[in-house]
Amino acid sequence: MTATASATPAAPLGTAGPAASLARHRTTLLLTGAAVLLVLGSVLVGHGAWPASLTVDLDGPLGDVSDWIIDNRDTHPLFLYFFGHLSNAVVLSVRGVYLVLLAAGWAGVTAAAGLIAWRVAGLRLAVTAVVAFLVCAVLGMWVPTMQTLALMVIAVLASVGLGAVLGLAAGLSDRVFRVLRPVLDTMQVMPAFAYLLPVVLVFGIGVPAAVLATVVYAAPPMARLTALGLRDADAGVMEAAASLGATGRQRLFTARLPLARRELLLGLNQTIMMALSMAVIASVIGAGGLGDRVYQALASVDVGAALAAGIPIVLLAVVLDRVTAAAGHRLGAAPRPGSARLGWAVAAAGTVVAAVVARTVASTGWPDGWTADITRPVNTAVGWMTDHLYSGVPVVGGTADWAGRFTTWVLDPVRDALQWLPWWAVLLLIAVLALLIGTWRTMLTAVLAMAAIGVLDVWDPALDTLSQVLAGVAVTLVAGFAVGIAASRSSRVEALLRPVLDVFQTMPQFVYLIPVVALFGVGRAPAVAAAVIYALPAVVRITTQGMNGVDPVTMESSRSLGATGFQQLLKVQLPLARPALLLAVNQGVVLVLAVVVIGGLVGGGSLGYSAVFGLAQGDLATGLVAGAAIVLLGLMLDRVTQPTRRRSGKGA
Amino acid sequence: MNTPPHVFSVRDLWKVFGPKADRVPGDAELGALDAAELRARTGCTAAVRDVSFDVRKGEVFVVMGLSGSGKSTLVRCLTRLIEPTSGEVTMDGEDVLAMNAGRLRELRRHRASMVFQHFGLLPHRSVLDNVAYGLEIQGMGRAERRERAAGVIAKVGLDGLESRRPGQLSGGQQQRVGLARALAVDPEVLLFDEPFSALDPLIRRDMQEEVVRLHREEGRTMVFITHDLNEALKLGDRIALMRDGRIVQLGTPEEIVGSPADDYVRDFVRDVPREQVVTVRAAMRPADSAESVSGPALAPDATVSEAIEAVVRTGETARVVEGGRCLGVVDHACLLGVVAGVPAVKEAV
């Protein structure tokens, strides 16, 4: 009896086909295969970095292309009749908006911001908006703020237009969607820095290049969300519209588009935030405005000046994000009593009155006496910090000591190890990792991308950047998972964290460089630190959401079985939250890379530096190769850590 | 022979989903397969198989079946929200399947409107604008359509809620909006696709009574899809019972309950309170001379349960009277026979 009973459950295991057993032992098989290849490779191929015979020197041809473009920019019809007009139109419209903003004066712009925020998002955000703009003015940053705002207005309008058109096409046509979706997905994970070089190649350094880079960077979320929103329209509502005899156009305008308005507004929000982020970074290619002030200040390690320009960036980001987000939340609620048109008329009238009054009473400019110079006190504080906190603090050591130790004990060994590894071993490692987490398809893309980096002859700098990314990701994940799990287990921690995360997630990447330079000086460690700070909020948030997303019934049943809190965490929550945790890894990697690359501006070296150097020196060939390598590195890292998107995407 | 004209006439209708679906209807061998075999052989699913029926003007025609029986697909084929694979659908003698896009839109705009199980309301519009939506699609001006919509809203009992959003309404209220939207265009036929399945039992009963009331007041033709037998019996003048895409029985509620066509139908109607469906015309026996002059009088289409009440109250055999003529009588035995589901034994009287 007992023998039969115990034999029965074993039977299915025995009868399982070879395919099933293959799947079960996949990990073992992969690791064994990798080990065999490792031994074979070391015997047959040998040691060393990417072989010179396998590289392609692009400096020459790229230099030629760049020279040809510079020579022909004023004569070739393509430039005369297309890029030229485009460029002029951009310059003119940015200039136009800028002049309007200046003419409205600080009072007019502040009033307009407050009134728009009031109409869209209510009184509290109106006050926030007004205060934010006044602070910008008090800091003496009115003019650069207006420059950035003018560039933003044009870039956002263009991004939204372009994104909406693409999204509409992809939302209504399956074929367009199939083509566009992977492109948009990939564009979304590209570091902002990579977009700068191609536009500079065509347009040269200046406002047009900055605007176009911003548009290319900021349009994808709009397109993506528009497409998704249109495709997700409630089938029941669409059928009801059809049953009433609506034409295709009526269905689109009265049902499908209004049903997608939440996604459309979310797209607008994301586009604005990405445009701001890029408009600041694009100071490297001549965007001017606030970003330029930060860039110049960082170049001379003038933390005070950088902060004076950085604060307006953060304020702008917070106001823009909150107002557009609030517009999204208000959807679906009943309209407030009173005519909407009347409210907007009041807002417009208020703006005009404020502008005119301020103009007649004083000049349009912000009065000089009202500015507060924070540069000097901040620099004094930073100087004090440099003197007292950099090193030699008893017990804990100084910040510079930390940075130095992090470089010596973490960054250097990782970099050296990566560069010491034979090139084929690196590829093998990537392949095994990608196969373990994803599919053979993601593995192929990742390996090919890494191999392309070798072919471009930037193997060593790329591995340097990779080492910074790995170190940054490791720190981010350890801290992020810990904080995320803590937040998911205590609502008090979550309540404390939420506003902090909200602010951190809205700040443009560039801004993170300012505090780390103040704390750690320049070098690779501060670049990694900035990357960690930038990536941490997203990782924390995804972790918390994943842990909280675990089915409460499952949690309750495990509790009813007498599981301790720790057992629950280990045996129920973490395994069930696995997809979210993997997503957190993926996001962490992508975000860390984006900032590590920008860290080239503060001594991060490697690819980011090559890109900046290429831009600064007009050596576009070097810059473009570095930019391409950044893209490839981003692609490789994304694909290696991209586990479930394709599988779960099937159902969606 | 003076039956009212047919609004919808459906002949040999097939709807097959899947690759090369149009080979299935013509093929007698494939058509005979059951659902699983058909899927295995062709990868197709036949949702509607060879269905024919007529909807008479002014009647409530109920299509009843369990989920997956093809009833929702069938009603969508009537206005080509789902394109039939083969067969014939005519409305007022006009071939629906031959209509071009413009003519079909006209049909949907003016002649047949539908009420959906999940309402299909536009969440961003007020109740008033949702009800006016069909008129807006017809191209009616804002003021006129709002006025018309306000009238319909009053008719379905939603006064005072005109400016609410659908999200602020209960399920029953939302379905009233859906009903009002369909009524607003003043269609010749109302199509209901399981309109009350998502509602609570009490609300469902209210809504059923609402439909009965509307039908009594306006006499509009209705095609009503449901999986609820009681709902079908309550609302339907005639019921088509569907199973696996075919109509297994078509008849009045009394015919379905009283003489089920096969074991499936019999099983289906087993728990129905027959006394509420069967009329005394079916339950009566011939009267002898004494009985035909005394006792309470009933109309032939009175239900058995009404007769029971009359018989119990008077203690006499009830007469079935039509036009002053006594057609027969019902006594305890006849009535109990209906309740018990067995024919009364005549000798026992």
Structural write-up:
The complex is a heterodimer of chains A (652) and B (349). By secondary structure, chain A is an all-alpha fold. Chain A has 30 helices and no strands. Chain A has helices spanning 2-15, 18-24, 26-44, 59-72, 77-121, 123-138, 142-172, 174-189, 196-203, 207-231, 235-243, 248-259, 261-281, 289-299, 303-330, 340-361, 375-388, 399-420, 423-437, 440-455, 459-489, 491-506, 513-520, 524-548, 552-560, 565-576, 578-598, 606-617, 620-640, 645-651. In chain A, helix 9 packs antiparallel against helix 29 (620-640) and helix 20 packs antiparallel against helix 29 (620-640). The longest helix of chain A is centred in the first third of the chain and has 45 residues, at 77-121. The two termini of chain A are 48 Å apart. In chain A, 48% of the residues are buried. Chain B has 2 domains: 57-273, Rossmann fold (3-Layer(aba) Sandwich), CATH 3.40.50.300; 275-348, CBS domain Like. Chain B has 16 helices and 13 strands. Chain B has helices at residues 23-26, 28-32, 35-42, 71-78, 101-111, 127-131, 133-138, 142-155, 171-184, 201-218, 229-235, 253-258, 263-269, 280-283, 304-314, 332-340; strands spanning 6-17, 45-56, 60-64, 86-91, 94-95, 112-115, 189-193, 221-226, 238-243, 246-251, 297-298, 318-322, 325-330. In chain B, a hairpin with a 2-residue loop joins strand 9 and strand 10 (246-251). In chain B, helix 8 (142-155) crosses helix 9. The longest helix of chain B is centred in the middle third of the chain and has 18 residues, at 201-218. The mean pLDDT of chain B is 88. The chains are: A mainly alpha (652), B alpha/beta (349).
Question: What is the alpha-carbon Rg of chain A in Å?
Answer: 27 Å
Strand content of chain B: 15-25%
Count the E strands of chain B: 13
Oligomer: heterodimer
Structural class based on helices, strands and sheet pairing of chain B:
alpha/beta
What is the chain-wise order of helices and strands of chain A?
Answer: HHHHHHHHHHHHHHHHHHHHHHHHHHHHHH
Number of helices of chain B: 16
Written as H for each helix and E for each strand, in order along the chain, the element string of chain B is EHHHEEHEEHEHHHHEHEHEEHHHEHEEH
Helix content, binned percent of chain B: 25-40%
Give the count of structural domains of chain B: 2
Q: Pairing-aware structural class of the strands and helices of chain A? A: mainly alpha
Total strands of chain A: the figure is 0
Tally the helices of chain A. Answer: 30
Distance between the termini of chain B: 38 Å
**The CATH homologous superfamily of the largest domain in chain B:** P-loop containing nucleotide triphosphate hydrolases
CATH first level of the largest domain in chain B: Alpha Beta
Distance between the termini of chain A: 48 Å
What value does the average pLDDT of chain A take? 81
Organism (chain B): Streptomyces poriferorum
Keywords (chain B): ATP-binding, Nucleotide-binding, Transport
Family (chain B): Belongs to the ABC transporter superfamily.
Protein name (chain B): Glycine betaine/L-proline ABC transporter ATP-binding protein
